[in-house]
TrEMBL record:
Catalytic activity entry: a ribonucleoside 5'-diphosphate + ATP = a ribonucleoside 5'-triphosphate + ADP; a 2'-deoxyribonucleoside 5'-diphosphate + ATP = a 2'-deoxyribonucleoside 5'-triphosphate + ADP
Subunit structure: Homotetramer.
UniProt name for this protein: Nucleoside diphosphate kinase
GO molecular function: nucleoside diphosphate kinase activity
Highest taxon listed in the record's lineage: Bacteria
InterPro entries: NDK-like_dom, NDK-like_dom_sf, Nucleoside_diP_kinase, Nucleoside_diP_kinase_AS
Compartments (UniProt record): Cytoplasm
Cited Gene3D superfamilies: Nucleoside diphosphate kinase-like domain
Family in the record: Belongs to the NDK family.
Class of enzymatic activity (EC top level): transferase
Keyword match Translocase: no
Amino acid sequence: MAKERTLSIIKPDATQRNITGKIIDRLENAGLRVVAQKRLKLTKEQAEGFYAVHKERPFFNDLVSFMTSGPVVVQVLEGDDAVAKNREVMGATNPADAAPGTIRADFAESIEANSVHGSDAPETAEQEIAFFFKDDEIVG
Ligand code: UDP
């Protein structure tokens, strides 16, 4: 298995409930290492840019409003098969479909306010990491 990096975001519903530590605990317990992290409030432009792939989807405007409604914690996670491993520990997009014991099953409030983001493929991970971090901000 190759060591890999992925982009994670702890979303505003989770920062609002002060459960970032609980989520990071799940990630670390899965063997993922936080090699970069910052807390910020996304601007509308940042949220629109980050989710540009979804701009024609009916949920886009609500998603941008949600993602700018409070602080987020953006992270680079590193580990063997980090992209797939993170997706596994996150669980399905809709918490109603998320496997028991996953972050979304245990913490998400709705299909929108689902507590975490994780890149869906190694190529996307590279782009998403570069969206938020400079190389020298990532310390492996
Ligand atoms: N989303 C939503 N309604 C939907 C589908 C998605 O509000 O019907 C939001 C949700 O916050 C999700 C994000 O849009 O995490 C991105 O959707 P995607 O399908 O890429 O899911 P993910 O990769 O986050 O599981």
